[in-house]
Amino acid sequence: MTASEEATAVEITADQRSGKEVDVTVDYLPATAAFHHEYPRTETLATVRTDAMVFFGVRDRQERDKYEYFLEFDGSRITNTSQSLGELLGPHKRKAEFHLVEQITPGSTCK
Q: What CATH number is attached to the domain comprising 54?
């Protein structure tokens, strides 16, 4: 192992212990500002989704139509929110940029 590889290995180990490992940004189209928060790599995507929804003042709901919110990452919808940030990003990424996307499913119009 070279000196730079050893330094990187020590840096990663220190980061893993510190708990401050992933700088998360979530944007939501109607909002003028993005959600920013730092999470440990072990935090689930469900927590990131919930925190972002609280920040933007939105919630899943059923009126006549059904309103649901999803995270998108690298152009794909996140379907497994029990997955951790570390599992999604791998061992080396320290930043994650998500989009919070609203899906509206029309309700029944029958009377």
A: 3.10.20.90
- pTM for the model stands at 0.78
Residue 81 has pLDDT above 60, yes or no: yes
Query: What are the tens digits of pLDDT across the range 33-45?
Result: 999 999 999 999 9
* Separation between Cα atoms, residue 75 and residue 52, nearest integer Å: 18
Q: Choose among 21, 48, 47, 46: nearest CA to 34.
A: 48
Q: Give how many domains the chain has, as a whole number.
A: 1
| b/e per residue 76-107 (b: at least 16 CB within 10 A) | eebeeeeebbbebbeeeeeebebbbeeeeeee
The confidence score (pLDDT) of residue 86 equals 94
